[in-house]
Amino acid sequence: MKKIIFTDKAPVPIGPYSQAVLAGNTLYTSGQIPLTPAGDLVIGSIEDETKQVMENMKAVLEAAGATFDDVVKATIFISDMNDFAKINAVYGSYLNEEFAPARETVQVARLPKDVNVEISMIAVIN
Predict the structure, then answer these.
(1) pLDDT in tens, the chain (126 residues)
(2) What is the CATH number of the domain that holds 73?
(3) Which GO terms describe its molecular function (predicted)?
(4) Is the pTM higher than 0.85?
(5) Which of 25, 52, 85, 117 is most buried by its number of CB atoms within 10 A?
(6) Structural domains counted in the chain
(7) What residues make up the domain containing 52?
């Protein structure tokens, strides 16, 4: 059985998908990009973009009763691998290293709305 997760503290989906789906005790989040909950695109430094992505992800996790400590897998899509260290610093500031999830980071040709970073996560909620 699956449960659709929605919060108004993260951007409304811009297509036919949910912010997250809880299947059993496993939470699958959709990728978050640097949109504010009001739908405004955060344009500025890669750090500002990444912070908005992580704030969105935090809101989605909380809506499902989870935290970053519950995340077991993260995927980061970036438009420029030269931004890896800056993105990693912001991303890492939200995590407890003791519970850091498995992760991959991939450079892609293009992301929705031409943003520079998108992150999705999988969490297990006990």
Answers:
(1) 999 999 999 999 989 999 999 999 999 999 999 999 999 999 989 999 999 999 999 999 999 999 999 999 999 999 999 999 999 999 999 999 999 999 999 999 999 999 999 999 999 998
(2) 3.30.1330.40
(3) deaminase activity
(4) yes
(5) 117
(6) 1
(7) 2-124
